[in-house]
Amino acid sequence: MKILANDGISKSGILALEKGGFEVITTKVAQEQVANFVNENNVCVVLVRSATKVRQDIIDACPGLKIIGRGGVGMDNIDVEYAKSKGIHVINTPASSSESVAELVFAHLFSGVRFLHDSNKNMPLEGDTNFEGLKKAYANGVELRGKTLGVVGIGRIGQATAKMALGLGMKVIAADMFIPQVDVKVEFFDGQSITTTIVSQSLESLFKEADFITLHVPAQDGYIIGEKELAIMKDGVGIVNCARGGVIDEVALVKALDSGKVLFAGLDVFENEPTPEMTILMNPKISMTPHIGAATGEAQDRIGTELAQQIISLLS
C-alpha cells in the first residue's frame, strides 16, 4: 500500500512504515494535483503538515483513500468531519510537538525582553560605529523570573509552556473554557519533580493580570485578542502567538506596539500566510519566525514514528 507524505516525513517515520510493508512517496505534489496523483498512484494514505489542504473536493475525488494524517496538532487544513462521514480515518499527533512549540514560545519571550530580534539586525549594521548608542537603546531589558505568564489554552502545548515558565520561576495563570483545572508536573534531570495545580480563570482577568501572554488555541471564527482586549492589558505587556494565525487582530496589535501599550510581540503564525502583511514584517518590536513551532529534529522524529504506529495499527 502506498502513502503520500506530501509535506514530508522524518526518516524514522519512513523506516517504520517501510518495515510495516508500506511504500512511502515523498514527492511534493502541487495542491491542485493531489487528487490526480492519489488516484493515478493508488495512494491509500495522505499525510500532511500545514501546507497541503485536504478538503471536500479531494475527499470526493479519491474513493480509495483510507487515512488522512496530520503531522501535528491542529487539523484546520483538513475537512475532518466530512472525511469521517465517508469512512476515512483522520489521525494526528497531538503530543509529539508540544515541547518544541513551548521552547519556541520562550525563544520569542527571551528575544522580546532583551531586544535580540532587533539588536541582531542592527549590530551588523552599526556595531562598529554606534556601539554605545546601541548599548543605550537596548539597556532596558526585563527579567522573566517573577513575572506572570498568562496561558490562553492549557492543553498539551499550553501545559508544556507552563512547565518551562514554572521552571524559570514565573507565576502561571491560564484561561481555558474546556479545562477547568490541570495538574502540571515539572520534571527535573535527576528524576525529581514538583506538581502544581493551575485553575482556569476568565480571559478578561487573565488579560488584566498577565505580564506576558501566550496563545495555544485552534483556529477561531474571530479574534481572541483585538482592540478591546489589548486596552485592558497591562502597559508593557508582551504577547506571543505560536498557535494559529487569525487569533490576533494584527492591525490592532501594530497600533498597540506603536503606542507602547505592548512592549513586544512574538509571532510564528500570521493572519495572511504565507504572505504576512508588511506592517508586521517591518515592525521592529515583533520577533518573527515562519511557522516553525514543530520544526525540530526531535519533534519530527516523534511525529513520523507516531503517524507510522497509527497507520500500521489501522491498516494491518
From TrEMBL:
Question: Which residues does the UniProt record annotate as the domain D-isomer specific 2-hydroxyacid dehydrogenase NAD-binding?
Answer: 107-293
Query: Which CDD domains does this chain map to?
Result: PGDH_2
Q: What highest taxon heads this organism's lineage?
A: Bacteria
Q: Where is the D-isomer specific 2-hydroxyacid dehydrogenase catalytic domain?
A: 9-315
Has the keyword Lyase been applied to this entry? no
One family from Pfam that matches here is 2-Hacid_dh
Its keywords, alphabetically, are:
NAD, Oxidoreductase
Q: Does the keyword Oxidoreductase apply?
A: yes
For this chain, the family text in UniProt reads: Belongs to the D-isomer specific 2-hydroxyacid dehydrogenase family.
Return the protein name: 3-phosphoglycerate dehydrogenase
Task: Give the species.
Answer: Flavobacterium ranwuense
